[in-house]
Specification:
199 residues, alpha/beta, Rossmann fold, four-stranded mixed beta sheet, globular, binds guanosine-5'-monophosphate
C-alpha cells in the first residue's frame, strides 16, 4: 500500500518570505502539486491570472462559496481568499503531495478537515525586517501596508498552533529545514504504510 499523500500547509505573516520559500520548495520538489487560490484582491504588477491566483470578483467568489466549491476560505487583509476543493481533492486522490500557501485562519480550518495535514509556520527574523521586506516590495499602498502590519502580532502568536516553525533568516537554510521536515513526515508515512501492509 502506498503511503498516504501529504497535505502541506505553509503560512506566515506578510513579509515573512513564505512566497519565495514556497517557490523554492516547488522547484526542489517538482512533483509537489500546488493549489492556486482564488482571491478578490487586485493583481499586483507581474502577477498572472490562473498562475498566481484566480483573480475573481466578489460576486463570483460568493457564488463559489454558495456552491460549496471551497475547501476553506477566509478574509485576509480586507480581501477574500479561498482554496478550491475539487483541485485539492483530485490531487490527493491521485496520490500526489500537495502544497497550500494560506493564512492562519485557513490553516486552522484545513487542520479540522485534514487532521493529518502538515502545518508549517514561516517566521520572519524580526519585526523590523518584516516591515522592511513589505515596504521594499513596493507592491502595497500605504493603507494596505498598515493593514498588513496591524495583523502581524496576532499572526505571530498563531505560530504555536503549527506542527513546525521555520525561521526564515536565510532562505537557503529555511528551505533545507523545510525539506527535512517534509522528508521526515514522508518517512513516517511510509513506515505506517509498510506496517499496515504487513498486518
Ligand atoms: P497576498 O495578498 O499577499 O498574496 O496574500 C495575503 C494572505 O492570504 C497570505 O497570508 C496568503 O497566504 C493568504 N492566502 C492566499 N491564498 C489563500 C487561500 O486560499 N486561503 C486562505 N485562507 N488564505 C490565503
Amino acid at each position: 500500500m502506498a503511503a498516504k499523500p501529504l497535505l502541506i500547509v505553509v503560512s506566515g505573516p506578510s513579509g515573512s518570505g513564505k512566497g519565495t520559500l514556497c517557490a523554492m520548495l516547488r522547484q526542489a520538489l517538482p512533483n509537489l502539486a500546488y493549489s492556486v487560490s482564488a482571491t478578490t484582491r487586485q493583481p499586483r504588477p507581474g502577477e498572472r491570472n490562473e498562475v498566481d491566483y484566480f483573480f475573481i470578483s466578489d460576486a463570483e467568489f460568493q457564488q463559489l462559496i454558495d456552491r460549496g466549491e471551497f475547501l476553506e476560505w477566509a478574509e485576509v487583509y480586507g480581501h477574500r481568499y479561498g482554496t478550491a476543493r475539487p483541485a485539492v481533492e483530485a490531487q490527493l486522490k491521485a496520490g500526489r503531495d500537495m502544497l497550500l500557501e494560506i493564512d492562519v485562519q485557513g490553516a486552522m480550518n484545513i487542520k479540522k478537515s485534514f487532521p493529518d495535514a502538515l502545518l508549517i509556520f514561516v517566521q520572519p527574523p524580526s519585526l523590523q525586517e518584516l516591515g522592511a521586506r513589505i515596504a521594499n516590495r513596493g507592491t502595497e499602498s500605504l493603507q494596505d501596508l498598515k493593514v498588513r502590519m496591524d495583523c502581524v502580532l496576532s499572526e505571530l502568536q498563531a505560530a504555536e498552533q503549527y506542527d513546525h516553525v521555520v525561521l526564515n533568516d536565510k532562505p537557503e537554510d529555511a528551505l533545507a529545514e523545510l525539506l527535512e521536515i517534509i522528508g521526515d513526515a514522508k518517512g513516517k508515512r511510509s513506515e505506517v504504510g509498510k506496517k499496515i501492509q504487513n498486518e
